[in-house]
Structure formats: structure tokens, C-alpha cells
Amino acid sequence: MLRRAFLLVAAILTGIAAASSGFAAAEPSAQPVAVLCPERAGFQESLAAREIRRYLYLRTGKLLPIVHDIASAPEGGLVAVGMCYPRFYGFGLKGCPDVQKAPEGPWVKGQYVLKTIRHEGRPIVLVGGTGSEGALFGAYRLAEHLGVRFYMHGDVVPDQQEPALELPQLDELGKPLFDRRGIQPFHDFPEGPDWWDADQYKAILGQLPKMRMNFFGLHTYPEGGVGPEPLTWIGVAADVNDDGTVKSSYPSRHFTTANPTGAWGYRPTKTADYTFGAAALYDRDDFAPDYMRIEGPWNEMAPEECNELFNRMGRLLDDTFTFARKLGIKTCLGTETPLKIPTPVKERLQAAGKDPADPAVVREVYEGMFRRIMNTHPLDYYWFWTPEGWTWRETKQEQIDATLADFRAAMAAAESVKAPFTLATCGWVLGPQQDRALFDNVLPKKMPMSCINRQVGHSPVESGFADVEGRPQWAIPWLEDDPAMISPQLWAGRMRKDAADALAYGCTGLMGIHWRTRILGPNVSALAKAAWDQSSFNPAVNPELKVTLPKPPEGPDGGKYAGFPNNAMEDTEDDPLYQTVRYDVSAYYLDVPNGTYTVTLKLCEPHYQEAGRRVFGAIVQGKQVFDQLDLFAKVGQNLALDYAVKDVEVTDGRLVIDFVHQTEFPCVAGIVVEGPVTRKINCGGPAWQDYQADWPPSEKSNRERFLSVTDFYADWARSQFGPEAAEPIAALFTEIDGLLPRPSNWVKGPGGINPDPKPWEEVREDYAFVDQLAALRPNVKGPGNLERFDFWLNQFRYMRANAQVNCTWARFNEAMTKVKAEKDAEAQRRLVRELALPIRKELVAHVADVHRHLLASVTTTGLMGNVTNWQQHILPVLLTEPGEELAKILGEPLPADCMPSKDYQGEPRLFVPTVRTCLVQGEPLRLTAVVLGAKPSQVAVSWRPLGTGEFTRVVMDHVARGVYRVTLPPEAVNEDLEYYVQAGDLEGLCFPATAPKLNQTVVVVPARS
């Protein structure tokens, strides 16, 4: 039987004003006056009690004492933690009839209960659940009823305190829809965990239970363009010491600014050379977390340096995964399958007379890997990632056989070493193209199967989950995609749809893959909430739900153009029609009169020269036209293939043609609709004969793959920006969710940009929402609400400036084409001065705008990674190389206004990139602050025990540039505390924005708990 630990919030209430909760008021009663917690409470129960006390303090300004029995509690309400439900041992509540009544079962792991009862004349709010995990989830759910909201980057607490705030009348039973719920941060870019130190890991881990999540998974590249990565050491047991440190290893790395070796298009750059004031963000030229501090090129490290890097990473994982275990979070990491053994390890095996391809040797390597993990850090799951190539092409039987052999070797190794963790699968696909659920037939049922959505999240949850039976299965939607890594991405509606699909397919886990944190606030919140309750948006869960989504506009949903003018079509005279295609398209919506139609899809394979590279399906008006169509295998390259569907009924004026992504991208050359009217479209091309031109290329997402977010953004905007401004802001975010422009894309790496030949006057219309949002700023009241509002406004202004850069870049390239066409040197210099330099000046000014708005919103390492992306991935191609070319033509340096400035151009600001809210007693509190646009005489931290006494001021050390750092003294972190950071006497330059009225707070939980 599950242990049902209960956290009791016992409060005398006076006319309950259910602050931000939506609950009805109860009979008159008093406010809470104490927290009751047993002396031997576990870590999670102790944390739950301290967290409720902390959030009540933040909401009311009153700090409740923590007591261990009712007899020692003051008269009035209580907050009690750590009991078994339905019997309450001690606390004087054992005989309470309401306490003895258990909520109806069945009970599931992680379930929580919030219920208001009365005992001896006093109202008591019970907060509990199944085990310590359920009690902790209940505590955070109670905080939500008090108006607090939770995200990966931190908490959002209402600006306005309510000293008379009383706890709401509650009768809530929360059951998770998925057993495993969490995140899968992805390495390999500076925007993600490549730049997390131990405090950043713990800060994010500490937020997961607040969102009622319990899973944290990582992926390791074992070798290749971005590997080896140091998360997972690969080798044999003889190369590991008993304490888990390694005797032998190989060069490995996570991203550093001065040492990226050209991966993903980044150029090695010292941060001191960053432009537009960005250098102030970084405390050294070779920026990276402490474990990646190395001298010289990473791939030339000495053997002892290689070992030390793995050992430092191992200690970090031990520290952070031990913390995760205290919080009830399951941890997971793993490598790709079949295992790719790093070249130095292969060479050592071969020198020992062993064949690295021999399954027995692979098993020996897995044994070494697993033993090292067992001796280094806690772990709950080790997962094997199916190859990324299986997304893009047909999987051959020998590849499947190699993967199955790898699974067998790993399972035998785990059994041999008695691994305490569970093996699992993950990857870019659930299984091979032939049968996505194939592994379900051959792997032990205790092994979870999972995968991320294909097409960087633009494809729905894998339908093959529906064919998996009797085992855990975890869906992993994308909270963001890496092609648009530098841009805001709002996908709350898509998260809801993916969660609904995962539930329908019988998945037992729901996680989100991501890199950044704060900018994903709506996405991660929508996913986290959908793992518990889908009644407000999922008709399958709530049949009475009546939600009408906006009708998509006529035309294609997504897709890009591709032209092949030199392709000679051998079996048709309509060559021009098949020489252009729209690819990566999700659907076409056509407005036609009601009636019966024949719909013909005109297809060809214009690009690939082998089978298995492009496979897709099509559905017309809900009727399947074809499935798993491989155009090359069917007819070959440059041969027309037409599919006609007869008797297609249109009853609502809308004809829908859906394309199903299966391997790589669907593509279509033309569409013909014949019936009451005739419509012909030259897909991807201009008007031709009686075919109309296609609509412009678009990457907008499929709104039919979205579920309603009206209620979500109503709550989100109220908590983020306050009630005065919430309604119109919520309406705006609801309108743009899933439909934001995408001024960035994959260009030799994540978050690149391309020249846009369209005039800016036309493109700027896509950004009308930016000025609409700006017009709402006067309605926002309170410093915290304004800080959050300005974050989004600056992010949207930054995105718009990015789009203007794209348009200006195209104009500059056009001018340079004319310059290069001129052969006379003097005439060429004249054209540079008359044509190129004026546009170059505009371009530099627009790039300055990009940085002004981006730097105004940087608050996390993820957004610092966006800055590095611009400085080391985009600017070398956008400004540096063209500038050098212009100077060479002119024979002199460019004018100052044609070169990027080193100066910061925005308003002065201060931020703290890592914010922890929970420490284990004995841990230090390390604080880093960054100041932009000012050089204060000092930056100081003012701290005190939570809610009591005078503040003690500690001056932070100036590390370098705009970076300041301090570790608070031991006496500051023995108990719960609050602090704020201020830059000298500069008004308004402080963290948090609400300080000193509402400060940053931290709970400190005894390690013995």
C-alpha cells in the first residue's frame, strides 16, 4: 500500500478571501498563525512546510513560526507537515471525524489532496498525498492557490502583498495523468546545459517539483562533430578506480566561447572582442562552467587533463543528482545506439588484442561504463538513443540487427554488474520506419520506450506509441526547436495537443526537450499543467467541453519552395509544373463551394536519388490517399506521379488536404480540384497556364494541431503582469501562440539568419503585435509586473529587429553583386561608397538594435547563449567578413559608423542569472550578479534571516567587466533567508525588481531530513 503522507495547513480563517484561487468563501475564521512539522520529518515534508511558510510570508509579509506539536502552537491556525493519511499520529487530530474520512480511491503515486476541514472550531486546510512526493506537490499546489506561479527559471509572486490574505476553501484531489513528468535539457549549444554549473542544475531541479514534475533526462554525444561530451564516460572497468574516478579517458568537451572548434558554424572568439556591449556579460574570454576550464584546445588536452574533466563532471553529477533524489526527481542519461566507442578507446582495445566490433567487447565496455556510474553518482535510468538518421531515411535490416545486438550487450552488462538503474530507449524516433513499435516485441517489458517528436517538434507525437503495450512509454515534445534557437517560440497550444495525443496513445510519461528556460515559460507551464489536468482543453477528457479554434486562413500550412529548372521530366509534357515543389508542408486549406469533387495530387521526386530518403502520407477530407509513399521507390527521380481522389465531399466550404510527415519532408508539385468549381495550384511556383501561383513560403505552424489556450493565457497574463493589464495581454498572446514569425533558421547551425529579399515595409506587417503589446505597457502596475512585461516586449522588439536585419542584409548583398560585377577598380570603389556603404551603415544600426533589445532582456545563461550565437555564429558572416571585403576594395578602413561599436547602448540594468530557492543545510549560497551600462562604486548583497531582524550588507567581489560574485557567510545559510542585490546607490538597479519590499527568499532544509 502506498504511504499517504499528509502536510497539514491548519489555519483559523476569517471570511476566506480565496486570493487568485477561484474558490468560494467559507464561514468567518482567522488567519494562519503557525506551521506544525514533526521533528523527524523527511526532507520533502520539511521542505513542504518551509515552502508554505515562505510563500505565505511573500504573500502577506508575516512569517509563521514552525512548531512540532499543537500544544506548543499559539492560539489560531496551524500549518502541519508529515503525517499518514487517513490516520494522523500526534498533533491532537487523531479523533477528528473529518480527518478520518479518506478521499475515494484509487490512490496513485504522487497524488495530492487539498481539503479544508474543521477541528475543535478551527478550520484546517489539509495538504497531503501519497508519500512525501504527493505532500510536496500539494504544498506547491496550495502556493498556486495563493497566486504564485512556477517556471523553470524561477517563481512569479504577485507584486501586491495582502496582509489579510486567508487560505481558500479547498476540496481538491490531484492525480497525475502521467507517471513520469519532466524535462530533457539538451546539450551541445551554449543556450542549454553546456553552460550550467552545479548551482544552475540545482536551481532548475528545485523548480521541477513546483511544477509537479519528477523527471530529468540528459543525452550524450559519444563522438562526432559535437562530441565526445563528458556526461558519460566510455571505457572498460580496468580504467576506473573504486571511487569512480577514471584512470584513462579521452578529450571531451562542452561549449566554450574560445574553443568551439567550428562546431555548428561558431567561430572561436574571445568574449572581450564581443561588440555592442555584450562583453560585459562574461567574466573571462574563454567562457564556460567551471568544470570546462581548460588550457588550450580541448582536443589537445593531456591525458591527466582528460581524466580530470571527466572526474569534475562526475562530481557535478553526484552533487546534483543526489539533490534531485532528495526532491523525488528521477534522473536519466545515456548515449546513442549502437554504441559509438571513441577512437582513443578503440585504439586501446585494439592494442590489447580486442575487436571493438565484437559484441563481447561491447558488453565489456558497457560493464565499465555502468560500474563507473554506480561508483560516481546516483542514477535511475540509462537510455539508449536510436540514430538520428532513422528520422530521415529508410532503416536497413542490418542497422536494426546492430541496434538489437547493442541492446543485448547492454542488458547483459547491466545484469552482470547488478546495475541499480533501469535501462530504457529514447531517440529521434521510437523505432525504425518499418515498424515504429518494433522494439516492444523484443525488449523486456520493464524497459521504458520513449522518443522525441520528429521534425524538431513540428511532427505530432509518435502514433506508434499506440502499438506499444504493457511497458512504460514516454512522449517527449519539443518545448522549442533549435533552428529558431535565437527567437521567441510560443507553443502553449501545441504542448496541450501533444499532451492530449500522448494521453490518447497510452503514454505513461510526458517530458519536454529544450535548451533555454525563461523564454519558454508559457510552453513549459502548459506542458506541466497538461500532465495533471486536461479537462479545460481536451474533449476526450471532458466531453462537455465546447471549444472552437480559429479557422486557418486559406492556403498552405507551412512549407518552403524548391525549384529544379534543369530537371527534365521524362513522362509528361508539363515539365514546369513538376520543376517546382512545396516541401515540408503540413496541409493545404482551400475555400470552395459545397459539393462533390475530384482532387488530384501531382507529385514527383526532384531531389533524392535513392529509396528511403523521403516517405510521407496524404489525407484528403479525412480520407487516406496513400501512406508510407516513397516516391523514388515508386517511380524513380523526375517522373510524374498523380493521385486522384474521387467523390470528395465538402459540406462546410473548406477542403482540407493533409500531408503526413514520415521520413524527411513531404513535397507536392501541384493540386487540381474539379467539381462545382475548378482550382489548380502550381505548388512552390508561379502562375503557369491555368494554374494559379502558390502562396508565399511559410513556416507557420498548424493551428489544427493546437488546442485552445484562451484559459491558459488568461491565468498566465494575470500572474505575470497583474490584473490591471491582464485581459488585453492575454488576448494578444492567445492570438499569436503558434503563429509567431520566424526570422531565424538553421544555417550551418542553430539560430542562424538568412537574407530576406522582401521589402521591410511588407515584412514589418508580420510584427504588428509588437506595437500592440507596447501600447499596453501603461496599464501594467508594480515593479515585478513591469520587469516581466518589459522582458517580453524587448524579446519581441529584438525579434522584429532581427527581421529588419534580414531584409537589410538582402539589400546589401544586392548592392555587393553590382560592386563585384564592376571590373574597373576605381568604379568599384565609387559603387562601394555610393551603394554599399550606406546600406552597410543601416545594417550595422539594425544589428545594434538587435543587441539593444536582446541585452535588455538577458537574465539567464540561455539568453547569454543567444548573445554568443549572434557574436560567434551570425556576425562573422553578416558583418565581419563583408566588412573585411569592403575595406579591401576601398584600400582603407571602413568609417566608424559602418563598424560595430563596442559600447553598450541600452539602459543600465542588473540581473542575477542563477536563482536558487532551496538549499540543503551546509550548502553555500553563491551569488553572481551582472551589471550592464553602469560602473557602480560597489555591488552589494543585503541579507537577513527570513522575515526577521536587520539586513546585513556584504559587498560582492568585482570579478571582471560587469560580473560580480560573492558567497554568503555560513551564518547566513543556516536557516531560511531573504536577500536583495543592489548596485551602489543607483536607484532601481537591484534584484529582484520588487526589492527591498519583496525580496528573493531561500529555504534551507536540514540535511538529516
In short:
With 1009 residues, the protein is of the alpha+beta class. Helix 7 packs across helix 9 (397-417), helix 10 (492-504) runs parallel beside helix 11 (521-530) and helix 18 (783-821) runs antiparallel to helix 19. The protein is globular, with a radius of gyration of 30 Å.
Task: Give me some keywords for this one.
six-stranded mixed β-sheet, Chitobiase, domain 2, globular, 4 domains, 1009 residues, single chain, 40 strands, TIM Barrel, Jelly Rolls, alpha+beta, eight-stranded parallel β-sheet
Description:
The chain is an alpha+beta fold and 1009 residues long. It folds into four domains: 5-175, 2-Layer Sandwich (Chitobiase, domain 2), CATH 3.30.379.10; 181-519, TIM Barrel; 555-705, Jelly Rolls (Sandwich); 909-1005, Immunoglobulin-like (Sandwich). 29% of the residues lie in helices and 20% in strands. The chain has 20 helices and 40 strands. A hairpin with a 2-residue loop joins strand 23 and strand 24. The radius of gyration is 30 Å and the shape is globular. 54% of the residues are buried.
- The tally of helices reads 20
Number of strands: 40
Sheet with most strands: strand arrangement: 14-13-12-11-10-17-16-15
Question: Which ranges are low-confidence, i.e. pLDDT below 50, for 5 or more consecutive residues?
Answer: 1-29, 86-90
Largest sheet: 8 strands, parallel
Q: Which architecture of the largest domain per CATH?
A: Alpha-Beta Barrel
- The global form is globular
Rg (C-alpha, Å): 30 Å
The total tally of domains equals 4
Distance between the termini: 23 Å
Into which percentage range does the β-strand content fall?
15-25%
The CATH class of the largest domain turns out to be Alpha Beta
Determine the structural class based on helices, strands and strand pairing: alpha+beta
Fraction of residues in helices? 25-40%
CATH topology of the largest domain: TIM Barrel
